[in-house]
Design a protein that fits this description.
The chain has a single domain, classed as Growth Hormone, Chain: A (Up-down Bundle). 76% of the residues lie in helices and 2% in strands. Strands 1-2 form a two-stranded antiparallel sheet. Helix 3 packs antiparallel against helix 4 and helix 14 packs across helix 17. InterPro entries: MFS_dom, MFS_sugar_transport-like, MFS_trans_sf, Sugar_transporter_CS.
């Protein structure tokens, strides 16, 4: 078992181990180990989402402090997303080549460094490139979260546990806005401007998480694709032993029907056979979902100031609205393995469209906050459903690359979005911004309904 290059595969029960590893992982009962893994990986999503929605907070704060015009405010939001576009393309492809664990160990280290440097930026000419570099290293974080957890979690709880990971992560969204409102109101803490502390907090938290991630094992499914069967066997056997010990009983038998071999898949396979239809569907999806989903989170503080609220009030109302993100994420947990993913995506996207329209037209404070919360609740049922869905529609050898390339399109759209949306906001007002967003969400629903495959309850290999 030490010679992984041997032409004769290791065998267990007369079947090549590599052919049964996926089934062995899928049939495991959920355990404390699975929950700890979900928590550690989910905390990583916290920092990605914290950073995403921090752009809108910084734009609202620095517009007043640095006297920024619409174009400069747009760049404050767009710089991080532009870096994420590059990072999602590069690091996700490297994760298919060099491993999920290795990329996990380098991406947050780079983000922590450049986020800390961003906190010391003296002006916009320094802040924008540093925000770009911080975003670059963070670009593949959610891709890695989705890919890594999907390849470890048993299929019966894959959707539910991924939803738990994002529930942990989405606590970062209201935290960013609440911290922003508090620090902006205080102006300075220990002689340092409040917005700089937001960047320091993200950097220090990411550095601490990096230490926790050093204990993560590599994905056995990825190891098998690389022909490293002995390493995959050691990880799977160790996990089986741990789960059996924690559950205090014997493990379920491995179904003989689940012996689909893992294999390398060239990147060009994205555009062949059944994967071509899925790739087209998912590229369209990622462009369209950005406007309805990330558009609200990144633009909400700016939209609220356009409605006549002060910067501090806008950040407070945005923070209250953002509380719907973890609530919606938690709400998705009992739904995500009971309702077909495709159906849940469409239903929640319609909710985003309707609540976004109501938010855009709302004038009273209670209506702004109420519809903001409802919009973000729908947003995270939607988000969790699609994050699970995208891990299921591509094979292991292609999963990180295919998801990352498609995901990068959402980041590229996020770069363009502020320039378009803030001009529409300036010329036509908030109602026009959210009317356009609702129309694009309807197109998204049509795209998924016509081109998306069914996936709920099936093994990754069988899909």
């Amino acid at each position: 078992m030490t010679d992984t290059a041997s032409p004769t595969p290791e065998r267990r029960g007369g079947t090549p181990i590599g052919h049964r590893a996926a089934a062995r992982l899928d049939r495991l009962p959920p355990s404390r180990w699975h929950r700890r893994l979900t928590l550690v990986v989910g905390i990583g999503a916290f920092f990605d989402l914290y950073e995403i929605f921090l752009g809108g907070v910084l734009a609202a704060v620095l517009a007043a402090q640095w006297h920024l015009g619409p174009t400069a405010k747009s760049w404050v939001i767009a710089a991080g997303f532009l870096g994420m576009f590059v990072g999602a393309n590069v690091l996700s492809v490297l994760a298919d080549r060099f491993g999920r664990r290795r990329m996990f160990l380098v991406n947050l280290a780079g983000y922590a460094l450049f986020s800390l440097l961003s906190a010391g930026a003296p002006d916009l000419s320094w802040l924008l490139p540093l925000r770009f570099l911080a975003g670059l290293w963070l670009g593949a974080e959610l891709v890695l979260v989705d890919t890594y957890l999907a390849e470890f979690l048993p299929r019966a709880v894959r959707g539910r546990y991924l939803a738990w990971a994002y529930t942990v992560g989405f606590v970062g969204v209201p935290v960013a806005a609440l911290l922003g409102a508090r620090l902006v109101a205080a102006h300075r803490l220990l002689g340092i401007e409040g917005w700089r502390w937001l960047l320091v907090a993200g950097a220090l938290g990411a550095a601490f998480l990096q230490l926790m991630r050093r204990q993560l094992p590599e994905s056995p499914r990825w190891l098998l694709v690389q022909g490293r069967g002995a390493e995959a066997e050691r990880i799977v056997a160790g996990l089986e032993e741990r789960v059996a010990r924690e559950s205090g009983g014997s493990l379920p038998s491995v179904p003989e029907t689940e012996t689909v071999p893992e294999r390398k898949v060239p990147l060009g396979a994205m555009f062949r056979g059944c994967y071509r239809r899925r790739t087209v569907m998912w590229w369209l999806f990622q462009v369209l979902q950005t406007v309805g989903y990330y558009g609200f989170g990144s633009l909400a503080p700016v939209v609220l100031t356009a409605k006549g609220h002060t910067v501090t009030e806008s950040l407070l109302y945005a923070a209250l609205s953002f509380c719907g993100y973890p609530i919606g994420s938690a709400l998705s947990i009992p739904l995500i393995d009971r309702i077909e993913r495709r159906t849940l995506i469409i239903a929640s996207a319609l909710g985003i469209a309707g609540c976004g329209l109501a938010f855009g037209f709302a004038a009273a404070t209670w209506a702004v906050v109420t519809f903001g919360v409802l919009l973000t609740v729908c947003s995270n049922v939607f988000s969790n459903a699609f994050h699970v869905y995208q891990t299921e529609i591509f094979p292991t050898g292609l999963r990180s690359s295919a998801i990352g390339i498609a995901y990068s399109l959402s980041r590229l759209t996020s770069v363009v979005l502020p320039f378009v949306a803030l001009n529409v906001l300036s010329d036509l007002g908030p109602a026009a911004v959210f009317t356009g967003s609702a129309g694009l969400m309807l197109l998204l629903c049509l795209n998924v309904a016509l081109l998306g495959p069914r996936t709920t309850g099936r093994s990754l290999e069988r899909i």
